[in-house]
Design goal:
The complex is a heterodimer. Chain A has one helix and no strands. Chain A is mostly helical. Chain B is mostly helical. Chain B is built from 15 helices and no strands. Chain B is 75% helix and 0% strand. Chain B has helices spanning 11-19, 28-34, 37-53, 60-84, 86-91, 107-128, 131-152, 159-168, 170-178, 184-207, 209-215, 220-223, 226-249, 255-277, 285-309. Classes of the chains: A mainly alpha, B mainly alpha. Chains A and B meet through α1 of A and α4 and α6 of B.
């Protein structure tokens, strides 16, 4: 069996790298969640009572 | 005379290239550090004052959104600045601990981070607050990166004088977030920060001139000498103090603001005079005192404008 026949393991992260990667992923998720929430709240604020007004 | 570094003298870049093959070890704190949080806090404060002194109401949520976008825009500018200046940051003692020179964040990561934040901050400000404020925020980021960081910083000792405009725009952006037209008042706020920047940074550069010289940055003490820098600090402080008094002179703030602006202005002049007359190289204690007090001076002026807006001054 030659080295070329070995399955490619790719880049293997160290535990520290995994920990940092997870922290970055959580930070991105929280930021995106906050952005969605911000757009939702600002939409309500800008529309005000008109949020319930729908043309029939 | 060009003081710009040659490519081969850029250890941070070489280090980054060597580290590029490794998966990133950057933590969330490293990305936060890229945003220059201390600079960001001053930007947010001056923008907040600009927003508060503007005529007309603004919903607290919209005001918060405006300040958030301005803060993120400032952070984007900080990240892009650290991306471009990684080579000289690695040489200077004050900045050698930043994430890129330390190898914790790759230059490409900082560039992508900065561009993403810049795009988001401008687009969100335009969509949720107003287009005029967004346009000025976009221009401010462009000015700080392209005009100051890429062009002026390594080309002329006047870098701080012209580049200081980038730091003076936030109160105007805050104003534009409330009413999408300009008036004399936000221009006075701009003028105060604009005139404050040169003596503030030159006081810092006096005590760091060896650092700047080693990095090849043509700061005024490096190019024109410390005596000329001390003279220019005094001149710019003498020009700053009347600007600080202008909101009272034009009737935008009451006597309490006038008293605070006059008292702290005199103290600024006294400290600038001490910098001018004291020759204590390399300790530069007088310059450090002026640098520290100048931060308090700007904070007090803007805080008193807030108080004046509340009707008490």
């Amino acid at each position: 069996m030659t080295p070329n026949d070995q399955p490619d393991a790719g880049i293997v992260l160290t535990p520290e790298q995994k920990k940092r990667q997870r922290a970055r992923s959580i930070a991105i998720a929280l930021t995106l969640g906050a952005l969605v929430l911000l757009f939702y709240i600002v939409t309500i604020v800008k529309l005000g009572p008109n949020v319930l007004t729908r043309p029939m | 005379m060009s003081l710009a570094l040659k490519g081969a003298d850029r250890p941070a870049v070489a280090h980054a290239l060597a580290a590029a093959a490794e998966p990133s070890l950057a933590g969330v704190g490293d990305y936060f550090a890229l945003m220059k949080p201390r600079v960001m806090s001053l930007v947010v404060f001056t923008a907040f004052v600009g927003l508060m002194v503007a005529p007309g109401p603004i919903h607290p949520v919209i005001g918060f959104t405006a300040l958030l976008c301005i803060a993120v825009g400032a952070g984007a500018a900080g990240a892009l600045n650290m991306w471009y200046d990684a080579d000289i940051d690695a040489i200077m003692t004050r900045t050698a601990g930043r994430p890129i020179p330390k190898g914790r964040i790759l230059p490409g990561e900082a560039l992508a981070f900065g561009l993403t934040l810049a795009a988001f901050s401008v687009v969100v400000l335009g969509l949720l607050v107003n287009l005029a404020a967004a346009a000025l925020l976009g221009f401010t980021i462009f000015f700080y990166i392209v005009v100051y960081t890429i062009w002026l910083k390594r080309a002329t000792p006047e870098n701080i004088v012209i580049g200081g405009a980038a730091g003076a725009f936030p109160p105007v952006i805050g104003w534009l977030s409330v009413c999408d037209y300009l008036a004399l008042e936000p221009l006075l706020l701009f003028l105060i920060v604009f005139m404050w920047t040169p003596p503030h940074f030159w006081a810092l550069s006096l005590s760091r001139s060896a650092d700047y010289a080693r990095a090849g940055v043509p700061m005024l003490p490096v190019v024109a000498g410390k005596t000329e820098t001390r003279r220019r600090i005094l001149i710019y402080t003498a020009l700053l103090v009347p600007c600080g008094l202008a909101p009272y002179g034009f009737g935008f703030a009451g006597p309490l603001y006038g008293v605070v602006a006059a008292t702290t202005g005199v103290l600024m002049l006294v400290l600038a005079w001490r910098v001018f007359t004291t020759r204590e190289d390399p300790a530069e204690g007088a310059a450090k005192q002026l640098f520290g007090f100048s931060i308090l001076y700007l904070f007090l002026l803007f805080a008193m404008l807030l108080v004046a807006r509340g009707g008490a001054a």
